[in-house]
Specification:
The protein has helices at about 20-35, 40-55, 70-85, 100-115, 145-155, 205, 220-225, 235-240, 270-280, 295-300, 345-350, 360-365, 385-390, 400-410, 445-460, 465-490, 495-515, and strands at about 20, 60-65, 90-95, 115-120, 130-135, 160-165, 185-190, 195, 210, 230-235, 260, 285-290, 305-310, 330-335, 355-360, 375-380, 410-415, 420-425, 430. With about 525 residues, the chain is of the alpha/beta class. Strands 10-19-18-17-16-15-14-11-12-13 form a ten-stranded mixed sheet, with helices on both faces. Strands 4-3-2-5-6-7-9 form a seven-stranded parallel sheet. Strand 15, helix 12 and strand 16 form a beta-alpha-beta unit. The structure holds ligand NPW, adenosine-5'-diphosphate (ADP) and potassium ion (K). This is Bifunctional NAD(P)H-hydrate repair enzyme.
């Protein structure tokens, strides 16, 4: 029996929770309803922001503070007061006629303290650092031309900008600029991570992302998010609960899973090699690779431990048929390097009720997607494959698109990208928060397919949480790319190197989180 798809990540590890604006409001309302005064929370939050800014900004720097009409602005007024009283040269820019009562109160007090105010931005940049407190999760509509102009001016000044909660102009949930947004060097997100900050489109705006925790009690978080499927951000702590897959002293290779990889063609022999090497890194016990018979020697040389299934091939050097029944394997991964003329075998694998992963040309052959299959299914499209597979699902809202696809296909959908999204049929969502553009090259995905296939074969055999393993595999693959990029530069992140270093990097990741653990 394959373990149900369950959610992973500690339910109350604030680092792993993603919230929408509505959920954050609900959580805040719960705090206020239970007696926490709004002004008290603001004082606590703004105090923590000011403390962090004092660590980041050397004394003597001229600081401009953009203050909006809502509580994002109010937070920033409190920050202005704290910085002013610590001796920083601060100037407040508040280009609004109206403001919320608490914002107005803090504005009046800042006036009383003698903090300089300006209505509009000067011609040239008067400040060394800008604190962006125009809008946070309350941005409800497109920015007016005047505000868009102000944000454009700040962006053209190229000075250090630190945004409070979100870069102003960014949609809290989708991460889309409305239609422009502050390009922050750093974003101090308040309380819980906002979903929009982790979308591909937001990466040009958020800069370095930090979360300012303010001790939201677990019961308030539950109150705010329990009605929707969980949305999580993959954290080392959560991922290392699934990896490495434990290996007791007394175990034999078949207990470590048997993966069948169906891949390769004369045109793309390397995709089969990279997928096989990815599977090797996963620790899978047995690896069988179905390839066109003319590739048999190539694969054997590259991956001597693999059992080769030489398949009859077409004149074009693609797999014409699978020579054996698809039994005896714990998991099947199909797609890398097949070419689009391998329809027969893709349909053969797809029409079984076996647990499978479809990638690359298997996705192109199944496009456009229709129907569902009974077995556990993982789809790993990049945006190009997506447009063929789910043309009706608009990719400007990657989160919603991935959630809809997972429900349509009743599959785990891995929408690859700078911030890969993993969506489940029940709507649960996870985002991989860190990766490197060094991975943006052909072959990276082939490695991921092999890695995930190997992990899932082990997971099926040992009745583990399969969606946890999909998340952990995506995270592991990205972390290895990131490690290589940090150590040797982005150009060092080529697929072969990735397969060489997956295992050792996992060891480093474990050491970083739990020194002494093997
Ligand atoms: N847990 C937390 O996160 C905590 C959050 N806190 C802070 O509060 C922030 C949320 O505060 P908020 O609700 O006042 O929203 P915020 O973004 O400040 O302003 C929205 C205001 O702007 C207006 N407006 C909207 N769109 C507009 C547009 N396009 N162009 C022009 N105006 C526009 C709209 O007024 P309207 O014009 O619609 O009447 C609305 O009043 C949050 O981000 C965080 O910084 C802290 O208190 C501590 C805990
Ligand atoms: N800009 C980027 N930043 C971080 N990771 C990226 C970026 N572009 C692609 N990736 C990652 O690299 C891999 C690319 O996979 P894919 O596009 O399938 O490659 P291929 O199909 O050519 O092997 C995915 O894991 C994806 O998440
Ligand atoms: K802001």
């Amino acid at each position: 029996m394959i373990k149900n798809m369950t959610k992973t990540g500690s339910p109350f590890d604030p680092e792993s929770i993603l919230v929408t604006a509505a959920q954050m409001r609900c959580i805040e309302q719960e705090l206020f309803a239970q007696g926490l005064p709004v002004a008290a929370l603001m004082e606590k939050v703004a105090g923590k922001i000011a403390h962090r800014l004092i660590e980041l900004i050397p004394q003597g720097q001229k600081i401009g503070l953009l203050v909006g009409p809502g509580h994002n602005g109010a937070d920033t007024l409190v920050v202005a007061r704290e910085l002013w009283q610590k001796g920083y040269g601060t100037t407040i820019y508040h280009p609004f006629q109206h403001a919320k009562p608490l914002t107005l109160a803090h504005k009046n007090y800042a006036h009383y303290l003698g903090i300089p105010f300006c209505e509009n931005l000067p011609e040239s940049n008067p400040c060394d650092v800008w604190i962006d407190g125009l809008f946070g999760l309350g941005l409800e509509r497109e920015l007016s031309p005047e505000l868009a102009d102000l944000i454009h001016t700040i962006n053209t000044w190229h000075s250090t900008v630190i945004s409070i909660d979100l870069p102003s102009g960014l949609h809290t949930d989708t991460g889309q600029p409305q239609p422009i947004a502050i390009r922050a060097h750093r974003t101090l997100c308040l309380g819980l991570w906002k979903l929009g900050l982790w979308q591909d489109v937001a990466q040009d705006y958020v800069g370095i992302l930090e979360r300012v925790d303010f001790d939201i009690p677990a019961q308030a978080i539950t109150q705010g998010i329990h009605t929707s499927p969980p949305m999580t951000r993959l954290t080392s702590r959560a991922m290392l609960r699934a990896l490495p897959i434990p290996r007791p002293p007394v175990i034999h290779k078949y207990q470590c899973g048997h993966l069948l990889l169906v891949c390769g063609s004369q045109t793309y022999p390397g995709a089969a090699v990279l997928a096989a090497l990815g599977a090797r890194a996963s620790g899978v016990g047995m690896l069988t690779i179905a390839v066109p018979e003319s590739l048999k020697n190539t694969i054997t040389l590259a991956v001597p431990e693999a059992v080769i299934l030489p398949c009859p091939e077409t004149d074009a050097g693609t797999i014409a048929a699978l020579p054996v029944a698809l039994t005896g394997y714990d998991f099947i991964a199909i797609g890398p390097g097949l070419t689009r003329s391998a329809q027969g075998i893709v349909q053969t694998v797809f029409s079984t009720n076996l647990p499978i992963l479809c990638d690359a040309d298997a996705l192109n052959i199944l496009a456009p997607w229709s129907g569902q299959r009974p077995g556990f299914t993982v789809l790993t499209p990049h945006e190009g494959e997506w447009q063929r597979l789910f043309p009706q699902l608009d990719l400007t809202q990657r989160v919603q698109a991935a959630q809809q696809a997972a429900q349509i296909a009743h599959a785990v959908v891995v929408l690859k990208g700078a911030r890969t999204i993993i969506a489940l049929p029940d709507g649960a969502l996870a985002v991989n928060p860190a990766s490197t553009p060094g991975l943006a090259r052909g072959g990276s995905g082939d490695v991921l397919t092999g890695l995930l296939g190997g992990l899932l074969a082990q997971g099926v055999k040992q009745n583990r949480d399969l969606t946890a393993l999909v998340q952990a595999g995506v995270w592991w693959h990205a972390q290895t790319g990131l490690w290589l990029a940090k150590q040797y530069g982005e150009l060092s992140v080529h697929p072969q190197q990735l397969t060489n270093d997956l295992a050792t990097v996992l060891g480093q990741l474990i050491q970083a989180v739990a020194p002494g653990k093997k």
